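Below is how a single chain appears once it has passed through the pipeline. First comes the sequence as given, then the structure the pipeline wrote out for it. We keep one example in the README because the format questions we get most often are answered faster by looking than by reading.
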Amino acid sequence: MNRTPIASLLGIFILSWPAAAQEPTSELHFTRLQYRTVNNCPNLVGSFRQAWTTDQFQAEDHFTEIVSRLTSVKTGNSRRDYRSFSLMDDELFDYPFLYAVEVGHWSLSQAEADRLREYLLRGGFLMVDDFHGPCEWQVFVESMARVFPDRPVIDIPQDHEVFELLYDLDHFTQIYGIILLGSGITYENGGVDPHWRGVFDDDGRLMVMINHNMDLGDAWEHANDPRYPTELTGLASRFAVHYVIYAMTH
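Resulting structure:
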C-alpha cells in the first residue's frame, strides 16, 4: 500500500476510501476505533459488551449532521459512509480523524501502540471521549504510555487555538451522559472535574484530544431527545466542529 502522509491527502483533508468501497462522495467520514475491551474498572456491565461501540450509530448520525450544518465540510451522513477500524488495519491511514470512546476500557498491545504512534506522527488526529474517574484514567494512560513513553499528557489551556477556531469556546461545562438525568449530579465514577487534555508533537500540533470526565458522544447521540439539556448538546456540537476543523487544518 502506498501510504501518502495523512496531512497532505488531496491538499488538506479529502479522505480516500478502501479499494473495495464506492467512489468518494464526501470530505469527512466518521471513523471509530475498534479495540480490545478490558474490564479493569467495575462500571462496565457484562464482559460481552464491546466498549468501542458505545453510542453507535446515533452518535455518528448527529455528529455528521452537526458538522455538515455548521461548516462547509461535506460529510458522509449515512451508515454506509461510517467507518470503524482496528489499529492494525492499513485503511486507517486514509482517515485522519479518529474517534475512540470509553477508552477507560481499552487495551493496546505494543504492536497496536506502535501503529497508533505512526498514525499520529504522520498527521492523524485522535479524539477520546466518555471515560470517567481515576480508575479509567489509569487504564487509558497505561496504554497511552506505550504509544508515547516520552510525551506527557498536559492540560490544554482554554485560550488554545483548538478552542478559538470558529466560536469562542469560553464555557467549559461538564458534558454528562443521559444516564445521570434526574440524579442531581453531573459526574460518574468519581470524575467530578472535567478535563480537556492533549498530547502534542514536536511542532506543537495537538495529536490527541482527551475529553476526560465527559460524555460528548451522549450529547451527540441524544441531540433530538427532549429530555437531554439543549445547552449541553449545543456545547458538545461546537467542540466537535472545532476538533474537526483543527484536524483538517493541522
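Helices lie at 58-70, 110-121, 133-147, 216-221, 230-249.

See the next section for the split statistics.
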